[in-house]
Amino acid sequence: MSHTPDSAPGSPAAPPPRISSLAPFAVPAFRMLWIAGLVSNIGSWMQSVGAQWFLVEADASPVIVALVQTASAAPVLLFAIPGGVMGEFLNRRRVLIGAQSLQLAAVGALTVLTFAGETTPVLLLTLTFLLGIASAAQLPAYQAIVPDVVPPKMIRQAASLSSINVNVARAIGPAAAGLIVSSFGVGAVFLVNALSFVVFLATLLLWRGYRPPAVRPEPFFDATRAGLRYLQHSDIVRAIFLRLAVFLVPANALWALLPVIADDELNIGADGYGLLLGALGVGAVAGIFVLPPTQRRLGVNGLVSLSAIVYGAGLAALVLFPSLPIALAVLVLTGLAWIGVIATVNATVQAFLPTWVRTRGLSLYQVVLYGGTAFGAAITGALANIFGATLVMWVSGAAIVLIGLSLVIWPIPSTKGIGRAIVPMGDPKDRDPQDDDRPLLVLVQYTVAEDRRAEFLDAMSLVEQSRYRTGARTWRLYAHQTQPGVLIEAFTVGTWREHESATQDRVTEYDAQVLDKAKGLSTVTPSPQYLLDVPVHKHPTRPFTDVPPPEPR
Fold this sequence. Notes:
Layout: H1 28-57, H2 62-89, H3 92-115, H4 121-149, H5 155-184, H6 186-206, H7 220-232, H8 235-264, H9 270-320, H10 324-352, H11 358-387, H12 389-406, E1 440-447, H13 453-470, E2 472-479, E3 486-493, H14 496-506, H15 509-520, E4 528-532
Antiparallel strand pairs: 1-3, 1-4, 2-3
Helix pairs in contact: 1-2, 1-4, 1-5, 1-6, 2-4, 2-7, 2-8, 2-11, 3-4, 3-6, 4-11, 5-6, 5-9, 5-10, 8-9, 8-11, 8-12, 9-10, 9-12, 11-12, 13-15
């Protein structure tokens, strides 16, 4: 099969029809999941407000208040990657049902204990950590189930709507939580969150039409290594994650310290704090309509850069002009800027990841997102304990503005024109099934003219990355010592089964173009050789019986 490189000349293709940012709502399954997720996210934001305000009323220090964010996010660092593997190979609907059941049990226990007056800061943080464990399993499966229910052309729009979903909940949940706390107490907020889990769980149980995509089974640890290896050798995904992490650490000063700013600087109660978070949510809702045309005009990098600058300026303005009306106006813009960064990055990653590793890739995205949240909340809370929340918020805002400006000279890599569809490759069929678990060495011989050797070596540097992304454990290129122009590519694969997965399920259009370019530089069509590992019986070490014993003393 021949593949035309992205740069190949040709007549310009007609631009694809523009897809509305709301088009995924026409898909019934997506619409149902989005609404159920919105209800659950409203409950989760109410939970966050209730937990933080419980600690504020208990006169906890700023670092303890900030630890609510850390306790929610830290479990993702520990369990997101296993959760991603489960979401890749297990029925995603069943994974979501299990996660929702665990969260319902944890919030139910917290509700009962709070109404009984038995909740302590330690107990609150412990149950929040348990909720985070369930989220670590749920988030990759929830995000990866979206491409299962919408057409491929709508993946980017559906991913944006899924990210915006969380922020739409900020327009409702925090304000509602403030009203409920002031009228009925924190325990009532936890009760409403428990009911939101009931709604999502019931939706999942009643949803019978889901058919999980067929996947080739892989051992758990092999699948985990494959996901990590893909990230290690995908320069684009790694660059996007790095820029997101750099933004998240100072950006989480807002989420960690806003309760303290509300109490100390603005002198407002729980209902006023809910209004502040509601203003952030209103800005996020506006993003549904503002961000798509802005991205078409500025591109992904331009939109993320502008959003970061606005977000950083909003953090600084919040403490420089401590007034409730000003704060509400500033936070609407800040909420819009936040979703401009998070939803854009999420949609870009989700649309770029190949189908075979999408859930594992999204679990690593969650590690970056929640790891940045946990670290950012903890460090800004600790610094606020020493220098005060006002100074930390101002410095964080200034740092984010600089980060946004840095994207002008250090941009997010473009994913345009990089083919992501899977292209099955040829593979020998005459093999013994008993060989599936044996390690494999693959040799590919190329014959390259001397005047094209430098071009070939450049092409093989891309082949190396492609081999690693699709399953190679080691890779080397050797020059034949007695046959000039002959170079041999040698790479190992963990098992023949994994090699079959690589050739049938993992090679994207871009990978196929990379391989075709290298093959095209060979004057003889390369033909791979497959060598299976042969176990060698190891004999126990025998004593040196011919060595005379030492002389007695």
